[in-house]
Amino acid sequence: MHHRDKAEKLHGLLSDFGRVAVAFSGGVDSSYLLKSALDVLGAGNVVILHGRSCLQKKVEQQRAETWLSRHGYSPDIEPLFIELQPLGWKEFVSNPEERCYLCKHRLYKLFLDELDKRDLHVLLDGTNIDDLKDRRPGLRAIHELGVQTPFVSCGLGKADIRELSRELKLDTSDQPSSSCLATRIPHGLKITVQLLERIAAWEDGLAELGFDGCRVRMDAKSERIVYLQLIQADLDQLFNPAIRRAVFRFFKNMGVDQIYLDLAGR
Fold first, then answer.
1. Tens-digit pLDDT profile for residues 227-250
2. 165-173 LR contacts (CB < 8 Å, sep 24+)
C-alpha cells in the first residue's frame, strides 16, 4: 500500500476516535501522529501529553517543548507536561531486564489517570510496524493498558512516517531516532543521576564534534569503557585521523580509556 493510502486510513481512524490524547515525545513518530490528530480533529479535540524527566537529554526536552511554536501553532495550544521522578521508582532503579516495561507502564498509567480527570478514554502511541520487529518490553505495557497504536493498525512503518513528515514539512522528518538515557546502562547496573549525567555529557560532546544522534553505551564492568553507536551516515567520519583523534581526546579527558565502535551503526 502506498504511504499516502496509509495516511488516508490513519485519518479515517482518527476521525472515528473523535477525541484523543497523544503521548508526545517530540520524536519523528509522535510528531507525525500529533500533526495528523490536530489536522483531522482540531486542537480542541486533542490533548497533548509529554512526560519530562532526568531520562531525557535537554536538547530532546527542548525539541518537544518548542515543537508547536516551530510548526506555527497558536500559543494557546499547550501540552500537558507530566513531571516524572523515575529515580524514585525502586523497581526501575535496580535496572532489571523488564526496565522498559516498568517505565512505560508507570508513564502511561499516569497519562491515563490524567485522561480520567477529563473524561477522555483514547490515548494514542506512535509505535509503528517496524518497532514490532525488535524486542521492546514497553510494547507489553502499551497493550496491557489498552493504549491505541494507530500506525500499527494502518501499516505505517518508519520510512512511511519520515516521507509523510517531509511532505508536511515537519522539521522532525529526518531527526535521528532517540531513546531514554537509561537504555545506555547495562541491565543490573543501578541507575543513578550521576550515570545519566555522564552519558548525556558524552553524547553532547560527540554531537559538538559532528556526531548528532549518537549513542554511548556503558560497559557492564567499567565506566572507563564505552561503546559508540553512530548513525550510519556518520561512520565514515571516524576514518578521518583528525576527527578520530579529537574523539579519543574527548573521551580521555572524560576519564574513558577504551572506546569501541559498533560498525553496524544505527
1. 999 998 899 998 899 999 999 999
2. 165/28, 165/31, 165/32, 165/35, 168/32, 168/35, 170/31, 170/32, 170/35, 170/71, 171/70, 171/71, 172/26, 172/27, 172/28, 172/31, 172/32, 172/63, 172/67, 173/28
